[in-house]
Amino acid sequence: MTEQQTESLLSIRNLHTQFDTKAGIVRAVDGVDIEIPAGKTVGLVGESGCGNSMTAMSVMGLVSRPGKVTEGEILFHGEDLLTLSAKERRQLCGNRISIIFQEPMTSLNPVETVGKQVREAILIHNKKEIGKEEAKEKVLTLFRQVGIPDPERRFRSYPHQLSGGLRQRVMIAMAMACRPDLLIADEPTTALDVTIEAQILWLMKQLQKEQGTSILMITHNLGVVAEICDYVYVMYAGQVVEYADVHELFRNPLHPYTRGLIQSLPKMQSGGERLYNIKGMVPDLLKLPKGCRFAPRCEATCETCVAQEPVLTDCGGGHLVRCCRMKEGGET
Amino acid sequence: MMRWKEKEPAVPAGEVTGRVPTEEEEFIEKEKFEFWHRFCENKTALLGLVVMVIIILMAVFANVIADAELVTLQDISVRSQGPGAGHLFGTDGYGRDIFTRVVFGARSSLFIAFSTIFISCLAGILLGVLCGYRGGTVDTIVMRIVDVFMCLPPLLFSLSIVAAIGNGMGNLILAVSITMTPYFTRVVRATVLSVNSMDYIEAARANGATDLHIIMRHIIPNCMGPIIVEATISLSTMIMIAASLSFIGMGVQPPTPEWGAMLSDAREYMRDAPWMVLAPGLAIVITSLSFNLLGDGVRDAMDPRQKK
Asked: In terms of CB atoms within 10 Å, which end of chain B has fewer, N or C?
């Protein structure tokens, strides 16, 4: 991890995002460190409610009211986003950092044509340099790039006239409009069916190759991770529990949670057996268990698990695990 | 599921999504005119629209239909005449032609109604967006004031404002606008709250859009549906309030023809010359009825829950 730090495009350090609710303080993101190297795809894996989407929202500055980023740094090109003014931050968002949301159905304004909306994304950041006509040409080029057939006609289409896959393509076109350095994809394929999912992932990889954009891929689908990510962070209950490059993670998953996630994928050769599932649910962030947060659901708990909270330790080759059964430098 | 090799999808991107245009285009056409189709299915609403268009045309082309000079021309020799060939609706107590006055009265009534709609809509959008988008203390304060205003009966409230600032058409418009603003504010605020939680607002924010941009491009256009419905439905209320205020002499001043004021003038002669109350009275009834029918039709056609 240390050797990456110099070339990181985005490094999140000790990020804490909290929600002040009547029932107490919910620590949605609790001390997360993430490094995204330039031009690479980093996966952020976890069940719903593990804080992976909240991490992305914190980077975009979209954490809404009861929530607040309370601690930590988000360094983008070496500059801390959290110290920027609202205006400076707005200039970065959509320009240098873009996000694709999960739901292409509701992420587009229903009363405006998709062409205008993408054009708007360009004009917000380049109002002085580019005229409307020129921006429209750019939109048509973008539409061609993301594989939207008949871009002239699609420019004038309203969102409800497009299929889910086309809408997600429009969202990608919008996100890529200003050629961002970092693209955050918050479960971009969850709402799509499997054939379209493959196309969208292929398209994102293609665009990354052409433009050298870094991607932060938030997903709970390990199949997606295997397809497109270079490095993977696994999150559980607001913390990173495992980090490795993608080959290492699938070959040698160390954290019991990661193992459980991988085991619960359906396999080609398994015929008729019951699919594995991790018992229980993600803990209530207000009532976190003592010691290891995963202990109540873990199949290999011991006394130390309940007694003390494990720390992220290097098990060799930059493979980080937060589990008290793992010792520095290797498995016990 | 776990494939390590880079694998292109079997079908290259972009080819699957090209659809047969005919079917889709039909769908688009259907969507475009859906509102109009659903509106036309409602025959009473269509009747309301037709009558409203006729009344608006009557107001616009008043000087073609009737002679503008006859509006205030008093001819004592023909006072209190019943309906007949010379005076279609008869004459009033001063010998003025009632038909001409009803036709020209449509101008003041519609002018009052549409300008109050315009002003209160604008004010309602401003306050509603402020409350719904900002939230917090501003929202609480403005909405409590709105609650207080809505406790007062609209007629009584506008009456007290006119009584305070003096009568006349301008003041009447102002008073009715102030009375109706809380209703619009409420509708707009509720819509803004629901629109504000949509993903595309978040997406716009993520694109670096300013608040003003988000409000103008995304929030207000998406609030227009409920606003239009509220405006059409309130039109008849506004006509009624304006006529009522003129009736008690707090609105449009004579000799300007106004239906409410005409009704008030004719009150004394009601037993001997019923046509004097009949003409302006029917005008008010027909106008507000047609606006009401239209409003209901628009609401029904726009309500997605009633989609078949």
From this structure: C
Nearest Cα neighbor of B169 from B265, B264, B282, B245 is B245
CB–CB of A208/A243 below 8 Å? no
Question: pLDDT per residue over B97-123, tens digit each?
Answer: 888 888 888 888 888 889 999 999 999
Using an 8 Å Cβ cutoff, are B17 and A147 in contact? yes
Q: Give the residue-averaged pLDDT of A285-313.
A: 81
Tell me the count of A-B CB pairs closer than 8 A: 114
Closest CA to B241 of B182, B160, B166: B160
Is the confidence at residue B3, as pLDDT, over 50?
no
Work out the mean pLDDT of chain A and round it to a whole number.
83
Give the separation between CA B201 and CA B215, rounded to whole angstroms: 9
In tens, the pLDDT along A140-190 reads: 988 888 888 888 888 888 888 888 888 888 888 888 888 888 999 888 887
Is residue A214 within a helix (H) or strand (E), and if so which, with residue range? strand A214-219
Instruction: Say yes or no: A271 contacts chain B, CB-CB below 8 A.
Output: no
Q: So what's the pLDDT on residue B182?
A: 93
Q: Which of B200, B205, B228 to mutate to test the interface with A (most CBs of A within 10 A)?
A: B200
**Is A174 an interface residue toward B (CB < 8 Å)?**
yes
Whether B48 and B293 have beta carbons less than 8 Å apart is answered as: yes
Considering only CB atoms, which chain B residues are within 8 Å of A267?
1
Query: Hey, CA dihedral for B161, B164, B166, B171, is it positive or negative?
Result: negative
Per-domain residue ranges of chain B: 107-272+289-306
Torsion sign across C-alpha atoms B213, B217, B220, B223: negative
Percent of chain A beyond pLDDT 90? 5
Rg over CA atoms, chain A? 21
Q: In A, residues 126-155, which contact B (CB 8 Å cutoff)?
A: 147-150
Interface test with A, best of B4, B16, B17 (most A CBs within 10 A): B17
CA B202, B208, B209 angle in degrees (round to 5)? 75
Contacts of B218 in chain A (CB under 8 A): 109, 112
CA distance A242 to A327: 14
User: What is the identity of the amino acid at A325?
Assistant: R
Structural domains present in chain A: 2-96+180-282 (3.40.50.300), 106-177 (no CATH)
In 3D, which of A37, A184, A178 has the Cα closest to residue A94? Answer: A178
Contact list in B for residue A111 (CB cut-off 8 A) is: 221-222, 224
Nearest-CB residue to B206 (from A94, A125, A265): A94
Average pLDDT, chain B: 81
Kindly give, in sequence order, each residue whose CB lies less than 8 Å from that of residue B13, ignoring residues fewer than 6 positions away.
A147, A199, A202, A203, A206
Residues 6+ positions from A56 with CB-CB distance below 8 Å: A44, A99, A184, A186, A216, A218
| CATH annotation of B107-272+289-306 | 1.10.3720.10
Residues from chain A contacting residue B207 (CB–CB below 8 Å): 93-94, 98, 120-121, 124, 174
